[in-house]
Amino acid sequence: MIKSILTASIIILCISQVYSQQPINNSSANHSAQSPNLISVYADKPGSSVQPTMWGIFFEDINFAADGGIYAELVKNRSFEFYKPLMGWKILKPDTTTGILIINQSKTNPANPRYARITLAEGEPSFGLSNAGFRGMGIKKGMAYHFSILARQMESSPLKMRIELVNPKGEVIGTTNLAPEEKEWKKYTVSFVATATEPKAKLNLWFEGKGSFDIDIISLFPDDTWKNRPGGLRADLVQLLADLRPGFLRFPGGCIVEGRDLENRYQWKKTIGNIEDRHLIVNRWNTEFAHRLTPDYFQSFGMGFFEYFQLAEDIGAEPLPILNCGMACQFNTAEVVPMDQLDPYIQDALDLIEFANGSANSKWGKVRTQLGHPAPFNMKFIGVGNEQWGTQYIERYTVFVKAIKEKYPNIKIVTGTGPSPSGKDFDYAAKELKKLNAQIVDEHYYANPEWFFQNATRYDNYDRKSFKIFAGEYAAQSKFTCSPDNQNNWKCALSEAAFMTGLERNADVIYMCSYAPLFAHVDAWQWTPDLIWFDNLKSFGTANYFVQKLFSNNKGTEVLPMFLENKPITGQNGLYASAVFDKNTDEIILKLVNSTEKAQTANVVLESTKKLGSKGKIIVLKSDDLNNVNSLEQPILIGPVEQELIIKGKTVNPILEPYSFSIVRIKVLK
Ligand code: AHR
Questions:
Q1: Fold of 89-222
Q2: Per 3-state DSSP, what percentage of the chain is helix, strand, and coil (rounded to 5)?
Q3: CA of 544 to the centre of ligand 1 (A)
């Protein structure tokens, strides 16, 4: 009952984030390719710097993003710690007298209390356990798979194990044997090669002989993880992130930071070290939406804080951890820690800074060193709370900031204004945070595409004397926020591109931006739209992904003034545009959105005292149909296409195709 009330409440709150539905601005629908569109770009008058962190990534374990996603573990419920210990497991041949017992040793091993005892009597046929994986296991022909298990033999005549990968018809597509012999707990490993490709394989473990033994942490990883790290990450998914060339990586969420209740909040210290010491908890998204139930969604923390820092380093992004500030998700239980009991939460933040940046001799720097990273991660930002609102948040944030700044004055603190980018709670938070001299404030925008077009001007008149903005979660919703029917369609992506020109034009205020959520498993998602979709073998970037990629890969270093008839380009003739200069490559970079159904010419004069190259390039992302989406079958139906562009002296006249987003790059000669 409580659960359904909570589910209903999040849906109501989500729907309350919906913005007024207005038609797409097609006022210039009759514009032809001959339209004047006289645009000036002042290449000699660079304005504010574009922060290196401008375009980044928001990572949250939602939609099977971590377990079942980027964390390449193939076995679900590998340590029998789900609420139902055998969820994900099936007993094969249960008609024998053979038994499986689930034993709880929480007193001696609170982080990993349960294990299974398998017993087989003399002369009995073999007994098996089958693991279903995360909606199956993606297996590749010719690939090596690394199996491991913690085990101990209980009797002198040892049991043996046969390990099999099978396809949905039950045909074996990879097999090996293992005979754990020690009487003490020990990790056993064995590798074998798969003989067929299969997206929905299962792992069967057959136990043979007479006797009994105990098993725990049953694991299977492919060989081709990112950087071939054992027990590592799915390489195709990391590559999609690396290709974004992100300025930062925000982790681990999202509401997952807060937890449904405080007991199930994200605690970074429980996510590092040996995987058997990482305390599994429920994933707060598992039964969040009645229309997308995923009761088998837990957090093993195989992807833990060390892995997040390592991932950020691998892909050249600044790490931005967000910590619980003593408040559980306000859409769920809204539990708060009394103010006089906040110390452990604050200590977690201080210890995290030492873990990331402390010397190898410091307490937490030593832990980092033991995990294999003696050099500091050089973390510059930390987030206090995710999407909190109200007086309780401001009270707690104030205490956190004081403690962090006293010890680490150079760390930049990220705070937030709650789930909505306007309204009473937003106004209250913005007012209080300004008074408190907040540094970087996170705003979230989940709204229809029309909101995004209209809000291309949102920051043009923002208070320049106040805090900087982290546009920390945004995504255009084709139906409404939290609707399971939302699509990553071209209309949404195009509206985000228009909005992002406004973010870029105001880079003196906007320091960080990230689309949300990031990942979704096609068979196990809870929230749509999402930037990247995947199944057990394949993955693809949505049209929205390519918009993000084009902005990030063409970030530049300084904003250039750009006008259409002396005004910023914020929807005139259905056009939205911004410009930057890149000091590293000496290029002028234009970003131009044509939101109309007609081609238009942009007659751009580049006001520069320097000579320009005679050939530039134009990269176009477009679709004639605003409803088009990329998919596993057509992963680049909407994908960037690059062409040469002729520059005539100081002018360039790109044709802006109907419903298109174009990047133009022009070299400035020395
Ligand atoms: O991105 C999905 C959710 O939206 C995030 O967890 C939360 O911060 C926001 O409400």
A1: Jelly Rolls (2.60.120)
A2: 20, 30, 45
A3: 17
